[in-house]
Known about the structure:
elongated; about 10% strand; alpha+beta; two-stranded antiparallel ribbon
Amino acid sequence: MYPDHMPQRAVEVHRPAPIPSPVVHSAPVVPVQPSTVPTVASIVLPDGRVVTGYAINAVRPEPVAAKPAVSRAAVNVALGGVGFLAVCGGLLLLTSFIAALTAFIGQLIILAAVIFGGWIAVQVLGTSGGSSGTTVHIRKATFKRNHFHG
Length: 150
């Protein structure tokens, strides 16, 4: 394994020892918080092993700046202003809708008058079957001494 000119070394083999399974207690173990945390803390596990470590101080969040109190009058005024704007917007939309509806109805009335007037004109001026008027053929007429002969 080693070349001839190198001295051989002793090889140590370390085999890990298995951790014994913990002993199950019939009653659950409830950890108790000590009144003061020591610099080095030790905890005894249920299977008898002891874990030692450094205690870490809990990080405390920075205090939140206190918000100034808002008066009820200011809240009521703000809500009243929002309500007033909503009502004004609704009235503006309503008046626009009424104006558009009025224009639409006016155009429908004009369209109906044009269609009905056209129908009346066709009925009055149209040539339907028998007419009661007199037909005169001027080309066949003869004029003698300012008298008309038909």
